[in-house]
Amino acid sequence: MARNPFVAAAGERPSPLKASLNYLLVCLVVLAGLWAAVGSLDYVLDFGFVGQVSKRIGDGFLLTLRISVASLAISLAIGALVAAGKGSRILPIRYLCDLYVRIIRGTPLIMQVYLFFYVIGTSLGIDDRFWAGTLILSGFEGAYIAEILRGGLASIDATQRDAARAVGLTRSQALRHVIVPQMVARTLPALTGQFASIVKDSSLLSLISVVELTQTMREISSQNFRLFECYFLLGALYLAITLPLDALGRHFERRFDYAH
Amino acid sequence: MRIRAAGLAKRYPGSERAVLDGLDLDVEADALAVIGPSGGGKSTFLRILGGLLAPDAGTVEMDGERVDYDEASLPAYRASIGYVFQQNGLFQHLSARENVVMPLVRVHGLSREEAGRRADELLGRFGLAEVADQLPAQLSGGQQQRAAIARAIAPRPRLVLLDEPTSALDPAYTVDILDLLDALRRDGMRFVIVTHEMGFARRACDACAFLDGGRIVECGPSEQVFEAPAHEQTRAFLGRLLEWR
Question: How remote is the C-alpha of A174 from its chain's centroid?
Answer without folding.
Answer: 30
